[in-house]
Write a structure and sequence with these properties.
Elements: H1 8-14, H2 16-24, E1 26-30, H3 34-46, E2 50-54, H4 79-90, E3 95-99, H5 105-115, E4 119-122, H6 127-139, E5 144-147, E6 159-163, H7 171-182, E7 190-194, E8 203-205, E9 214-216, H8 221-238
Helix pairs in contact: 1-2, 3-8, 5-6, 6-7
């Protein structure tokens, strides 16, 4: 295939055959916050040709320290719409569908079944909706990569990739793992997590709205690094680079 000029450097590294694989790949990205916004950016810049993004949230001032689309000028705007415009500005030929809403479980399951995505990327930062998505992905036998907690972490060298059953030193992953076990799911989900111990001083309790009873403080680069790792894992698995277990 003829490689688009903007992908020339990528093609030099991975070859035209793999550029074609990425162009044909279909990815579902759910959650467009600090992790998901950067995961989407790296996927699009790598040449993924078909992507569906989902997030019903709007930009809040507290998002500015870590989210790609969060600026003073975008406060109150749809996260999904902002990224849709950005991604199409990177690649106008991108086949992109954006849902500016939090999808009901039955709608999400139908979406996954109808489109047969190569990968479902879970970047949801609340346990209950994350569990819903993970259960659907397993039920539909979809390949899924899931982000655990980037909050309360500072050390990039502690980021790990492994099966959900192997995660450690991550309170968020512990909660997800425990609740998945009740559903009979013990393994088979690729997890991005950090082994860094979270300081208790970085935790803040909430009123429980929006599925969150608490949250950890965050630094600018950690959610982005989680997003980078999720994107790289999906890309390398799609092109089946030697050494990556499928």
């Amino acid at each position: 295939m003829e490689i688009p000029h903007w992908l020339e450097r990528t093609g030099l590294l991975i070859g035209s055959e793999n550029i074609q694989k990425l162009k044909e790949a279909k990815v579902l990205l759910v959650g467009l916050g600090g992790v998901g916004s950067y995961a989407g950016e790296f996927l699009v810049r790598a040449g993924i040709g078909n992507i569906t993004i989902i997030d019903g949230d709007v930009v809040d001032p507290t998002n500015i320290n870590r989210q790609m689309q969060a600026l003073q000028s975008t406060i109150g705007m749809s996260k999904a719409e902002l990224l849709k415009k950005r991604f199409l500005d990177i690649n106008p030929d991108l086949n992109l569908t954006a849902y500016e809403k939090f999808m009901e479980p039955e709608d999400m399951e139908k979406l996954i079944q109808d489109h047969q995505f190569d990968y479902v990327l879970d970047c949801i930062d609340s346990v209950t909706p994350k569990l819903t998505l993970l259960k659907m992905a397993k039920r539909t036998k979809s390949k899924v990569i899931s982000s655990m907690g980037a909050g309360g972490k500072l050390d990039p060298s502690k980021i790990r990739v492994g099966d959900i059953s192997t995660t450690r030193e991550c309170k968020f992953a512990q909660s997800v793992r425990k609740r998945l076990k009740k559903e009979g799911i013990r393994k088979g989900i690729i997890a991005i997590y950090s082994e860094e111990i979270q300081p208790k001083s970085a935790l803040k309790l909430t009123d429980g709205k929006n599925y969150k009873k608490s949250f950890y403080g965050t630094i600018s680069y950690m959610p982005a690094l989680f997003g980078l790792t999720i994107a790289s894992e999906a890309i390398l698995r799609i092109i089946k680079v030697k050494g990556i277990q499928i």
